[in-house]
Amino acid sequence: MTKTNARWLTLVPSAVIALAVSMPGQARAAGYYFGEQDPIAMSRGLAVTAKLEAPSVLFYNPAGMAFLDGLQVQVGSLFVMPAFEYADPQGRRPSENADFKVTVVPHIYASYTFMKKGSVGLGFNAPFGLGLTWPTGFAGEQYAAGTDLKMPTIYFAGAYRPLKWLSFGMTLRVVPATIEVMQKFQVVTDAGATDYGYAHLAASAIGVGASAGNMVKPIERLHIGFNYLSRIRFDFNNGIARFGLPQGTGDVSTFHDQAGTSSMTSPDVLSFGVGYDVTDKLYLEFDYNYTLWSVFKEQAVAFDNDPSGALSKPTPKNWKNASCYRLGGEYRFNDSWAVRLAGIYDQSPIPDSTVSPDLPDANRVVFAAGFGYRYPKLGLRADLGYELVWFMERTALTSDGNPFPANYKTVAHLVGISLGLGQ
Prior knowledge:
This protein is mainly β. The protein has 3 helices and 20 strands.
């Protein structure tokens, strides 16, 4: 290895060549999961595992389809507006805000229930994703200058209701995932000057998973639901890493364009909900979600032409299993109008030692609200939901084992809208 390469390798973190596996799939506990794929569920804080009277239930608990009537169709979008702020805990580096970006996430669901026994459904949404870009000159751009993760998901669902008070459901999920990561790193040119190079990583994979759930109404007014979301494995066998070096840098023996392979496994998710019709107009539900994020222990990639082995060095992540607590309610004024409110506490799975600017996550406190309108004669409905997501201030220090000390503050506004048609 040349002296110049040795200097590069001390300045380039292994995350530069991680081929996007720092985005390990999907979960209902923090991370980068957007479960707000329906404004009805969203304004109830996603406390809908036990009861949701909309075709979007095929996403949250497919057993609920069997409690719907006839043909149901729903179309809408989620608008995500996050604001990320970085500061150096020691005040040596300038503070910075990530570039503001509105992400639009569409969804569509359709279900058909026949003879009040069986139901089939189709769905499309994109509950897992991240679009985060830091401005040029950001102190942590060698860890993450920009990330664009897209995981649109197609659902094939079925449900069966053997008894009036009991139903079961399943979905098959097909997830074509794509990701791009841009990162910068310092290099020393042949003349001895310090300059910046960049790495542009791109990869795609298709994952297949399933979910299974049930809903029970053991007594009048009481609703109980359980849903299991399976893990999904993604094999990134077509990854491409392109490196750009500044002028006057002649040694490209380490940083040259090449292919790479990697894999990742998303976690299993367990959801339990219990709800109660307090009156004919008021419904309350509490949900608990547990996500097995501990499957994400490290990120690693195998490069086709990496004789030194330096680029393929794994980076530890050591994510933890995480819990989420949701309490939501809905009050119906009449057959047309309803209002919804909710509160959420959502744990982050990322330890202080590995939190980084590619995903500056933290424990979250969420307030949700919304309303809905129905026109029963035509079977039309319109719903609007809003969430204020406050990320608790997060500080990572070198004493925590983190190579990039930082203080992160984040807040996000989410707005969801949908139109529906059904009996």
